[in-house]
Every structure is written in structure tokens, then in C-alpha cells.
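Our collaborator T.R. sent over the components below with a one-line note: 'Predict the complex.' Nothing else. No constraints on interfaces, no templates requested, no preferences about which chain binds where. So this is a plain run: every listed entity goes in together, and whatever single assembly comes back becomes the starting point for the next discussion.
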Amino acid sequence: MSAVQRAMLVAARELFAERAHPDGLAAALTFTGLLVLLESLAFGPGRAREPDVAGAAFWIAVTFAAILVATRSFDRELEDDAIDAVLALPGGRDALYAGKVLALAIVLAIVAATTGVLSVFVNSLEVALGAQLVLVVILGVLALAPVVVLVSLLALRVRARVALVPILAFPMLVPQLLAGTNGAAAALAGDATAAFGWSALLAVFALLYAVLGLTLTPGAFD
Amino acid sequence: MLRGPNGSGKTTLLRTIAGLVPLTHGRRVPPTSVLYIGHRPMLLRGLSARANLAFFSAFRGRPADPTDALRRWGLSALASVPVERLSAGQRKRAALARVETETEAVVLLDEPFADLDTDGVVLLRAAIMSALAREQAVLLATHFHEELDRDARQLLVLDAGAVRSL
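Returned assembly:
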């Protein structure tokens, strides 16, 4: 069985478990939905419609959602030492990392799509470049997931993991947050060149952190 | 058979062989394939016993239907129930059914008798004997059932992290 197939198996296992107990997804959707509503109230209808503000609020919500979903996912792994069963399998460490990244990206895509649609309706956003916006969101999600999973693994056995993961992750997520915000703002405002530029940067981040994660993962478990 | 008082290092030794504990010195020469079952069931909550076991065998590249193994362990009716809804003993049985679905060269069992009822102990003894008959090496760490020492090919006693007798 190839490494890709093993990662797909871990991702499928993760998604089935999340489907049975969608604690992480439910918490993330509730959180992002409330954040969009509060942002709309706090900024007022005029400011909330500005591409920069809408883009920033969206990515801040999705970033926090990523932490929530990943935390719940690793909580589940630690119950009954389920994670050790995977780590003891040949190729289990890399597969666990890659599978978790894949599963988190899929769950985040659901959260991002729901949050995006809600944001468009609540704030009456005008989307000038829909396809580019979707591209930014997909690449942004792919750029977030490797970092969040890597940090979750590094803090796996730490007692204060719930507090530590966001503290460690957010400095590493600033570039993705900026690129995602600017890319979304460009797509909302109709600047196709800028939207593609930021999308390309997000793709680089996604690749870079995925490689970094796969390199660091075996040592991270020790 | 691996014996020793609490804290003597039995679990650490098994986890080290399984690659779950980093070595401070020396070198690990892993066998081709190891099945490690800890004193906790190591099954993912949210999935059924069948889904958990199918995942492990598929991951090893030898997809197998665990239905027969789960039936032998008395879990036919519970095979599709999420593992968090099973009792501790039933979860232990589901975990130990892996001995039959993942026939690895080396089987490491840490306190496998904990949470098992009398029937479960009989089933486990039979599963171990079957594994030995298949030329699998079984390393079992336990405080219980000293009568099993008679069946052991070797008895290893640990004390404070060191081998006291072999």
C-alpha cells in the first residue's frame, strides 16, 4: 500500500469518526456563524461590506475554526490511546499527519463554504469574481491545515494543549492569514490579477508547510 | 511471557519494541511487522469495532473482513456499534480480535487479561496458541494468570528496568 493510500485511509477514518460525532464541525460552524453575525453588528452594514473587512473577518473565523476542529480530532485520538495504534503501524506517523491534514482541509472547506455563504447574505456582499474567491478559499484552507495539524502534534502530550496550540499556531499562520485576507478582498473587489497573485502565494504556503510537516512529523511524536 | 512488579518497565519495553518510545541509546532493529495492543483498547471512538479492525488490516495492505474474528470473540451483534457504546470488556475483546485479523510476525500484548471475563480469558489463550501455531512470536506482559507461565516458551522477569531473570 502506498503512502498516499495510507493517508487516504487515515483521512477516511477521521471523517467517519467526525460524521458519527460531529463535535468539532458543530463547534466550528457555531463559532464562525456567530462571529459573522457579531462582526456585522459591530462594524455596521457599511463597514462590514468592505472587501478588506469582510475578508479579514472570514479568515479569522476560519483560522479559529481550524484550531477547534483539530483540537477535537486529537482529543478523540488520545481517548483509549487510539493514536498509538496508528503510530505503531508501519508508515503510521507520516500517514497520520497527512491523513489528518487532508481530513481537516475537508472539514474546513465545509466550514469555509458555510461561513462564506452566511457572510455574503448577512453582509449583503457583492462578489465580483466568484471563481477567484473560491480558488482563494480552497488554497487558503490547504495552507492552514498543515500548520494547525503540525502544531497540534507538537503539543500532543502537553497538559495545556488547548491553550498552547493557538499560541504556537497563530504566529505561523500570520502569512496565510494576510494572503487569504488580501486574496479574498481582491476577489470581492474585482481585482483578478491580485487575486491570482495571492492565490499563488497561498499555494506556495500550502506546499511549504505540508513538506515541513512531513519532515518534522516523525520526530514530533518522540 | 514478561513479568515484573509495577513500574519495572514492562510497558516501556513493549512500547519501545513497537517504536512508540524513543531510544536513549542503542539501536532498534525492528522486525518486519509488529502488532502492539496496549492495556487500553486503542480503538477510535465514533467508529465501530468492525470499522476499526478493517482500518488496521487495510492499512497493512491486507484488507480483511473482521466479521468472523469478532464473532469468535462474541461480538457479532455489537460489531457495528460505535466502540464508545461497548463495555470495557467488550472493547478489550474487540481490540484483542486484532490478533486474528492482523497476523504479524511479532505480537505484543500489554496486560491483555485486564477487563476480560472468564470466557474472554479462554478466548485469549486460544488466540495466543493459534498465533504460536502460525509461527508468530507473542510477547505478553501481565500480572495475572501465573498458570500461563507453564505454556510460555520463555519467561522474562523485569525489575527496575533491568532483566532479573530469563
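Summary for T.R.: Residues 3-219 of chain A form one domain.
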